[in-house]
């Protein structure tokens, strides 16, 4: 299987006015195509920092990172944006949909940034929204649908461009158990259909459903667990 993520000895320091926080202290990891990896660990251990670096929303202080074979060191800002747009879909805890746009327009954004033709965008958006069960709400605005539905739309936006990697940061954090379970089930289904997913979660019920769990502590990988078979796993 193709290697989608390859990180070598990643360090990240945040420089404040007085103090420096060494958030990541030498992380090396690989994610292969088709994997579903959960990143876990206590608050402040560096999970979100790792995901933002993987998502090219921030860069490492030291170390190397290749996404889908592309070396990201030394990329200029616009090149990073292009790589992010072509290869990565991001799902945030707080959905991050634009309220002034319809559901359809929100999901269309990544493809419009790529400059895709209108008919191509339309077909892909409809397909993505149907995949997440939101085909019937295309003309609604985010504030007219529930939180669980907003997260489904955010997932559609992440997958519409068929990225190599979908990054998911606490996808169920703002949802009740029922909607959280449904969103998790959807992510598992998308993974079965081929999506490569890296997810940060506090919830051990959900991380236990991933192929592989990577546990962080104080900016380092302290444990890694592989689940033997993914068959028939479901949210209880
Ligand atoms: N922009 C920033 N500036 C300074 N320090 C930061 C910044 N972002 C994160 N940190 C620090 O880096 C460390 C790791 O933070 P990070 O948000 O990655 O942890 P986390 O595991 O995702 O935590 P949580 O589970 O609470 O979201 C923490 O000590 C945090 O205070």
From TrEMBL:
Domain ABC transporter: 5-235
SUPFAM superfamilies (UniProt xref): P-loop containing nucleoside triphosphate hydrolases (SSF52540)
GO molecular function, one term: ATP binding
InterPro entries noted in UniProt: AAA+_ATPase, ABC_transporter-like_ATP-bd, ABC_transporter-like_CS, ABC_transpr_LolD-like, MacB-like_ATP-bd, P-loop_NTPase
CDD domains, per the entry: ABC_MJ0796_LolCDE_FtsE (cd03255)
Pfam families in UniProt: ABC_tran (PF00005)
Keywords on record: ATP-binding, Nucleotide-binding, Transport
PANTHER family found in the cross-reference section: ABC TRANSPORTER ATP-BINDING PROTEIN YTRE, IMPORT ATP-BINDING PROTEIN
Name of the protein this chain belongs to: ABC transporter ATP-binding protein
Record organism: Bowmanella yangjiangensis
């Amino acid at each position: 299987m193709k290697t989608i993520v390859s990180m070598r000895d990643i360090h990240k320091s945040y420089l404040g006015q007085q103090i420096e926080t060494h958030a990541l202290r030498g992380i090396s990891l690989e994610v292969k195509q088709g994997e579903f990896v959960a990143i876990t660990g206590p608050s402040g251990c560096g999970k979100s920092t790792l995901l933002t670096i993987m998502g090219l929303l921030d860069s490492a202080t030291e170390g190397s990172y290749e996404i889908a074979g592309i070396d990201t060191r030394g990329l200029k800002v616009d090149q990073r944006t292009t790589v992010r747009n072509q290869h990565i879909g991001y799902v945030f805890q707080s959905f991050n949909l634009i309220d002034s746009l319809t559901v359809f327009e929100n999901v269309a954004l990544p493809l419009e940034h790529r400059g895709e033709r209108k008919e191509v965008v339309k077909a892909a958006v409809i397909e993505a929204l149907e995949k997440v069960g939101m085909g019937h709400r295309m003309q609604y605005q985010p504030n007219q649908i529930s939180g669980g539905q907003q997260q489904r739309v955010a997932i559609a936006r992440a997958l519409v461009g068929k990225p190599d990697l979908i990054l998911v940061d606490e996808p169920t954090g703002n949802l009740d158990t029922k909607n959280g379970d449904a969103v998790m089930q959807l992510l598992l289904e998308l993974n079965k259909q081929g999506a490569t997913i890296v997810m940060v979660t506090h919830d051990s019920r959900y991380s236990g459903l991933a192929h592989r769990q990577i546990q962080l502590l104080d900016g380092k990988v302290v444990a890694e667990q592989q689940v033997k078979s993914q068959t028939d796993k479901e949210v209880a």
